[in-house]
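Feature request, filed as a ticket because there's no other form

It would be nice if the structure record came with a short human-readable summary line next to the tokens. Right now we just get the raw output. Example of a typical job, pasted below so the devs can see what we mean:
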Amino acid sequence: MVEKGVWGYFWDSDPSALDIRLNQTYIIERLLDLGDEKAVHWLFKTYSRVEVAEVLRSSRSISPKSRLFWTLILDEGEHA
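Raw output as currently delivered:
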């Protein structure tokens, strides 16, 4: 289940119904693109760096600005 502290990022769905495994890509995309420090902390507490990097590489939903930022942060430049 998604932590209540980040529910506001999922205004277009029922955050209490999100499954952190079944909805992994959606959750990671949304929080990488829009999340604040608290949301990103929860994200990296919940998902491994490898899981996050894989979504970053494959997603078409993350904005170019966010993608560049997270690519630099995760040092995924060679793979993105």
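Something like this underneath would help us a lot:
The mean pLDDT is 93.
The chain has four helices and no strands.
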